[in-house]
Structure prediction request, 372 residues.
Amino acid sequence: MIGRIEIRYGNFWIRLICSLAVAVGVGNAVFFSLLDALEEVARTLIVEPDVEQYIYASRFEEIIAAFCSCIIFSLFHIEEPWTMTACCFAMAMAYVLGVVMTAILFGMVLPIVSPLLGILLASVLLGTMAWSEERDGRKQLEQLERAKQEFTDMLVHDLRRRMSSILMSFSLLEKGGKATEGKTEEITGSMRLIAERALIQINDLLAIRRIEESKLKLDKKKTSLRRFLKRSILEHQLACEVVGTSIKLLDGEDCEIEIDEGLISRVLANLLWNALEHAEAGSEIQVGCELKEAGGVQVFVANKGKPIPRELQDKLFEAFVSERKESSLGNLPAVGLGLAFCKLALEAHGASIAIESPFDEAGGGVKVSMQF
Prediction:
């Protein structure tokens, strides 16, 4: 079954099928003599019908001429509707001139009405398809521009709130002369976390653009997966202390895979940050890797947060879609950027990413898996 997205004017076979449909309709009209009266009128206007030496085309030749006049439009991809109209007019005038010249030079009268009707109907049908596709393209561009603007507004708002939090922390340090050493460390730790998260967002934005423009070159090398995961978990211990959660690396077999460590470490950082932001206080975030029976390696990050609606799960990997939940790190809304970066980075490795939610027996939690 042909999907709607495949039925496009830009596809030669679609244009050919539509032109053939018009040709069949015109051919039937010729076969059943529905155009004979119009043909007589046209001959009267263009050639001298009283001249006996004229040779008139047969019914079969008229059908062939009609088919050719319809199909010729499918050979060209004319995107502009106005260009299609101009081509239709030029072709019709050229055909009429050809009829006159053939009658004068060779004494043969070519069919007039059916080819002109074929030219008109084929150009109208294909021109309508081209116009509709152009309109849909404009709408998609407008929607994309609106989405980008909304995303930019969200990102700026998010970064502004993070910077505001850092400034507030600075104010507390300036005014808190009698603050304990532990309190000072807590404030500076929180400031560092907010700044790191903002930097990750900015880097994700730049990386998405580079991946989409195919300018990102991967530096793949064999990597011990468990060593790689342990290092990433250690880098997030401070965030765990602030949020009041813990990260546990589940037992499993170690294996080596070829990855760009810098890029995949940022993917894992995004997943761990998301898990931390939406984890319940006092809960445990699980990280693991396992060999799949069908081949390949699966790496996952799971938390005990609120489940994500199924209808939203696939959309979360789009750059301008977010779940818009409050987080555990300062109640800051997500801007729907990290998972889009993760998806693109993994696809560049020939890998994939998926969300499973709920995934635990209690009907809650979110599990994000990377399949290498």
